[in-house]
């Protein structure tokens, strides 16, 4: 997709809707002061690579905002979308060969794999942080290398337990429990009623990583300690593996090969009573023209992911941030594009259009009405505020990024669930795989 000034004239309705959204949330008056801008280079044209949307409102609003940017600056922006699994390798290739999109929306700590290939974004990040109430701590950890910002956090596709309320109540629970012990009991009760649950155990960038890291950390297990020493093979990790093995017995068949779209399809088809996912399932049902889907939406509820024996949130959510590459001929235009898209007049209507599919990285956006206009959205509001970082509790860098890209944690749990290895054997193998990347 490529946009010019002429394209803008053809999208009046969409832009008008965005403007109405801005007035409704009051962003123009609340954040109008202290405007920074970067002067685009003469003749600048940009290419953006981003992950493929899971909710239509995200893409529609992003495109509308991009057209507004082109109208304002004259800078054409070509948008290319790739599947979630393909973004990371394509970004790595671009960094290594020194050619590709000017801006890439990547995953987790991708910037830390090739920090010397990226344009520093410190001035932009500090401006946005000051203007919008500050970045959440996990965003600073992901976005910064030392004192320099090398990525610009967009937020996270937050994950919650998504469940059919009527089936959960029929199984004897008022809502889906938010502790691991209660979660397992409810899953067993649902399975006994003929309503299995299901979560991704395949190499799913979002769903597999999110729920399995959350469980691992919730039992006190982790890949490395705060000195980057591998500690995966621990009693706490084995307890987490034993727990997921027992939970797996309540799953619908096939989850060992599930990727990020499979649980969406299974839930909407009525094959599972609950899963861990973003708000995209609810969005699909709520916005459908099918009366059956609209009726299903009334029965869909959300609660935050379960807390384990450690007694506090240990969430990992699918974090995404923008990178500007040094090979770009138009770094100022790229930074101005990001500034424009992150400003409240664009960011908050975009969140609303996607009903909170991406949880914000900046504290001011907690006040976006999207989080309270429908109570079913609210559990997703604090996903970034509450989350830990991949590679917890060590430092972000090449090792943490490479270890996650290798799906070490996901594979460890899948091996146990498949019966290929005992919890002890799986933990030992995962520790050895981790040590290939972490050499202290």
TrEMBL record:
<dbReference type="GO" id="GO:0042597">
    <property type="term" value="C:periplasmic space"/>
</dbReference>
<dbReference type="InterPro" id="IPR006311">
    <property type="entry name" value="TAT_signal"/>
</dbReference>
<dbReference type="Pfam" id="PF13416">
    <property type="entry name" value="SBP_bac_8"/>
</dbReference>
<dbReference type="InterPro" id="IPR050490">
    <property type="entry name" value="Bact_solute-bd_prot1"/>
</dbReference>
<comment type="similarity">
    <text>Belongs to the bacterial solute-binding protein 1 family.</text>
</comment>
<keyword id="KW-0732">Signal</keyword>
<keyword id="KW-0813">Transport</keyword>
<protein>
    <submittedName>
        <fullName>Carbohydrate ABC transporter substrate-binding protein, CUT1 family</fullName>
    </submittedName>
</protein>
<dbReference type="InterPro" id="IPR006059">
    <property type="entry name" value="SBP"/>
</dbReference>
